[in-house]
Amino acid sequence: MMHGFIPPQRYFPYLTWKEIQQMPNKEKVVIIQPVGAIEQHGPHLPVAVDSAISLGVIGKALTQLDPNIPAYALPCLYYGKSNEHDDFPGTISLSANTLLSVIKEMGASIYRAGFRKLVLMNSHGGQPQVMEIAARDLHQEHRDFAVFPLFTWRVPHNVSALLTAKEKEYGIHAGDAETSIMLSLLPEQVQMELAVTEYPQGLPTDSLLDMEGKLPFAWLTKELSRSGVLGDATVATKEKGDRILQSVADGWVQVIQDIYKFQQPNQD
Fold this sequence. Notes:
The structure is a single chain. The protein is an alpha/beta fold and 268 residues long. It has a single domain, classed as Rossmann fold. It contains eight helices and six strands; from the N terminus they run αβαβαβαβααβαβα. α2 packs across α6, α2 packs across α8 (238-261) and α3 (96-112) packs parallel to α4 (128-141). The protein is globular, with a radius of gyration of 19 Å.
C-alpha cells in the first residue's frame, strides 16, 4: 500500500493523467507536499521520525477533512537538509541547494499540471528556511501560484499542555513529544527500553543568545548531546501521543480549509 497513512482517495499518485487533466477547478485544489528527513533520533527511535510525523499527521487530517474540499497529498520527500546530525550514523542529508532545487522543480511540475495551491508541509526543524525560499521563488516565477511554506507543528494545537516547561523549551529533538507521537503512529519501531533523558549541554547563560530563538547561534547536535536526544524521551506514552496526533491533525484540518478559501493578494 503506497499510500500508507494517506486516505487512498486523496493520494495524488493514484490518479491517472486523464483524471488530473479533467479535474474541475484545479486552481482551487490543495496539493500537499509532505517533507521530512532521514536522520538520527536517539538510540530509541528510527531515523524516519520526521517523515513519519508528516505522513501520519496529514493522513489523519485528510481523513477528517470535509470530502467536498479537494485536497491531495504527494509522496513524502523523505530526504532533507539534516547536516546538523551528520555525526550520527544513519543520517542522510541533502545540501540546501539540492533540496531547494528539488522543491522548486516539483512545484513547477505541479503548476504545469494546472494546480495553483501548493503546501510545503515540513516536519524537520533544520530546513524551514529552504521551504520559505522555495515558496517565494515559485510565487515570484508564477504570480498566480499560491505556495505555503508551513511547519507541521505550528498549526493550532494544545500539545504544550501535555509537556513540562523544560521540555517545551529544550525538548526539540527525540524528546517527549516526538517519542509519544511515534508510539501512536509506529509503536513497533520505538524501543522505549533505550529511551534516555538528555538536555542541551553548554548553552550560554545570562545571554541574549540561544539555540533557536530570535538571536540564535549555529550548532551541531553532537555539540549539545552525546545520545542525539534533546529532551526527555523516558516520559513518553502512547496515550499522550494519541492526543498529540489528534490535536495537530485538527489544526491541519483548519489550515487546509483556510488554504482552500485563500485568494492571493493582488494590487494590479
